[in-house]
Amino acid sequence: MSKSLSGVSRRDVIKTVAGVSFFPTVAFSKSSQKRESAKVVIVGGGYGGITAAKYLKKENPNLSVILVEERPFFMSCPLSNHFLAGLMELTPLCFAYNVLEVKHGVKIIRDKVLAVELDKRAVRTSQGYIHYDFLILSPGIDYDIEDKPFYTETLVYYPPAFKPGSEHIYLKRLLSEFEGGDIVITVPPPPYRCPPAPYERAALIADMIKRNKLKAHLYFIDANERPLINSEGFMSAYYDLYKDVATYITSAEVKDVDVRKRIVKTSHGDFRFDIANIIPPMKANNLLASAGLLKKREKWVSVNPLTFETHVENVFVIGDACVSYLPKSGYAAHSEGKVVAKILSARLKGKEVKEELLQMVCYAMVSDKEAIMTETSFKYEREKGRFIPIHREDNERKESTAKRYIEWAKGLWRDMFG
Amino acid sequence: MDRRGFIRTCGVIAVASFLDARFFSEALANQEGLLKTYNKALLTKEDGSPISEKDILPHKEYIFFYPYASTPCFLLNLGDEVKGAEIKLNDGQVYLWKGGVGTKKSIVAYSAICSHQWSYPTREYAFINYYPPDKASETTKRASVIQCCAHLSVFDPKMGGKVLEGPAEVPLASIVLQEEDGKFYAVGVLGKDQFDAFFENYKTDLRKEYGSSAKAKQLVDKCSVVEVERYVKELIRC
Q1: Which of A348, B62, B122, B137 lies at a 20 to 30 A Cα distance from B71?
Q2: Mutation test of the interface with chain B: which of A403, A405, A412, choosing the one with the most B Cβ atoms within 10 A?
């Protein structure tokens, strides 16, 4: 079990929370002191950061909320496999950050955060320091490639497309220009961003081979022994629909990628490819390690799982970068953004707020028209300090589920940008 | 005092009389901001004649638009008497929902805009629906509920639209109905309505369907009641 800076493991954090509280009735308002004004700085304009910013301003119109984001526009990772497979244009996935400024009064600073300096209570950008009273870090992931240098070159030839933006656009181009041959997709071990995403992508690329009647084969190389979620639904789709055009290789470790010879070397043999989508292992955004929120060898930031607060008071980490009971996904980050906004609002008003357990809904396409889905709620075992997921999977592929998938995403976007 | 005024100030006395007086006055004070009266609008059949109790079949899902021309509501006959309930919001506010109307007190109405992320029945799709007792949801296994299939928020139409499970944080707003001489009227909206978010999020869609935002926001004084399955091309149940 990894240890956080304070020497408290995540499990201990959970235990401590359980020890002092009588879930779900006790509040987690730390100080009962009201604040007249405060400045909240949010780093990262993804699902978590945007939601936290919007809800903080909605609850506290006079609060100064600053969102620092490097990219000029938001692009959604959820539904981006639709774009890659040609089921959707890129435009519906893109939104302008200025909406948050115009509609809600969030101040948007378009800049790269160079460092988070916790001792100064400030973040440093190319334009200088931005000081905060409360800090919400929602910077997402980085690819974890230090131990495996071959990934460095792979990244520029065959983009993973797990960070929204040009990676997707270039992978889409590779797929559009593909006329036949072999495709390789590799899946890293967990945890990584959006557990069903590689499985959905494999299904959609196999579907594309079939639909376009290409002389092609997909080698889908998975570090895991089966799909991490909706296993039954994915496996039956692979078997029923794609057994002629795809091979699923499980429990295979990627050892090397030779981008010139176009070969992936794995524990299960070598695979030649014409195009590839190499998805490397992932870790919390590098910013967090340099901020001192990660110990050596730790990949993700430990937080109080119910409040998303780090060991540093009033510093929160939400979204894919933290360790929580929720899987890494846009939906979870969005829900966490709401929770943290509630907690901060309560602290500002000197009020208490009830603890709550979040829920997850995930969809995945298994063909160009059909999808499967999972709903997960969580039970909190106070005595053992454990969160128990209760999955309700719908593994029967249906067109109606694919329509719900779109509505699911649109709902999130309405909530963030509406 | 006229009927509408009666509702605004103490419309739920009959239901609330079993509660102690202190609670009652508190609830009413809070209710002030949560009960909004609009035009008294007659509910009609599609031919324009007043709808009567026998036209509202038990457990069938009907839609009408109130208080604005574009804001959809469900009309449901739940079969048996639906008693009033005290509704508590997360922020501590409390209001009293008066239960069903009609001779059996079994007829209720709710805003059909999901209080989570505002999915609503369009001409194309309805992701939010009523699940009658004999057709439980395949996913949540619940029946006699209103459920939104986008994120699986589930609401209880027998309990003032209370959230039973899922990510919704507030109940569905209920539509205050009145029955007079066998005719049914919508007179107001009780609870946290989602109209601002609805108009903001669906500006483009509403403009397309109604011609302009102003037309979509027109207050109605008559509501045509239609079966949802006749109004919507595809009901998405889950």
Answers
A1: B137
A2: A403
Contacts of A408 in chain B (CB under 8 A): 150-151
- CA A371, CA A364: separation in Å to the nearest integer? 5
CA separation for the pair B100, B82 (Å, rounded)? 5
pLDDT digits (tens, 9 = 90+) for B73-106: 999 999 999 999 999 998 889 999 999 999 999 9
Residues 6+ apart with CB under 8 A from A292: A5, A118
Token pair 């009227």 in the structure block, residue: B185
Do A261 and A163 reside in the same domain of the chain? Answer: yes
- Classified by CATH at the fold level, domain B37-85+99-235 comes out as Rieske Iron-sulfur Protein (2.102.10)
Q: Same domain for A215 and A261?
A: yes
- Rounded to whole angstroms, how far apart are CA atoms A386 and A305? 10
What confidence tens digit (pLDDT) does each residue in A358-410 have?
A: 999 999 999 999 999 999 999 999 888 899 999 999 999 999 999 999 999 99
Cβ-based contacts under 8 A for chains A and B: 60
Domain ranges of chain B: 37-85+99-235
pTM of the model: 0.90
